[in-house]
Amino acid sequence: KSLLINEAALNGDYYLEDIKFVNEAKRVGILVGLIFVAQDINSLESRYHREDMRLIADAKTDEIAYSLRGVACSKDSLESKYHREDMKLIADAKNSGIANDLSNVAMDADSLESEYHREDMKLIADAKTDVIANYLSDVSMNVNSLESEYHREDMKLIADEKNSEIANYLGSLSISMNSLESEHHKEDMKQLLDAKDDCDAKEIYNNIIKQYEVQNKKEESNYVTFQEKIDAIHQNAIEYTDGDTTKELNDSVFTLK
Predict the structure, then answer these.
(1) How far is residue 40's CA from residue 42's CA, in Å, rounded to a whole number?
(2) Is 133 exposed, middle or buried (0-12, 13-18, 19+ CB in 10 A)?
(3) How far apart are CA 131 and CA 213, in angstroms?
(4) What is the pLDDT of residues 201-217, one digit of tens each?
(5) By CB atoms within 10 Å of each CB, which of 22, 23, 56, 121 scores lowest?
(6) Residues 14-43: what's their mean pLDDT?
(7) Are 145 and 158 in contact (CB under 8 A)?
(8) Which pLDDT tens digit goes with each residue over 153-190?
């Protein structure tokens, strides 16, 4: 009923076609998705509306229809060059979990603006399990990873990992600024890849993270603020002149102890 009186739908170019799609919906989840998209102004104003409605109508499951619905109404996706191929990947997803991960990445502005979007989506679609797909989607939407030189290599390592627990730790390390900004990121990832089992991987990961935390605390303790430097120089000057305001300062005054 809402579709019949919806102003955006009534004024759009697809009203009669959309009514037909709705009337022929095979399942409740698909019906809901079709009605939602048929009334969405972003979809109605895009060039993809008709084909998106068809993909939702033909969705293998209600869950996949839901994932398609989100992307069909996403302005970021609709304005990107990837919308059509992303929708197709979601429609063809092996299961609803992977479809959900694909839809999240398909709507993510950071991923869409990166050079890696297409290859990341393919890795997620081809993931061995929906668990691995989830780890891949997290990394593919992470700005730290997307802006690093390691993104492509890290995604491939996660996708190729057979052990889901090790893949989890690889994913976490792939978005760690401490590791990414260090000179040891590749070495860190290799340590995890060489883990004997889940317990070993956990220990290796925790040790890596702890090392960076210790290093950061050490750097923080050695950090001297600008005001602290000024105060120290002032104290040096007082001690050096010993009350003699005519005494000329030398370099030792400006050297912090």
Answers:
(1) 6
(2) buried
(3) 28
(4) 999 999 999 988 887 66
(5) 23
(6) 92
(7) no
(8) 999 999 999 999 999 999 999 999 999 999 999 999 99
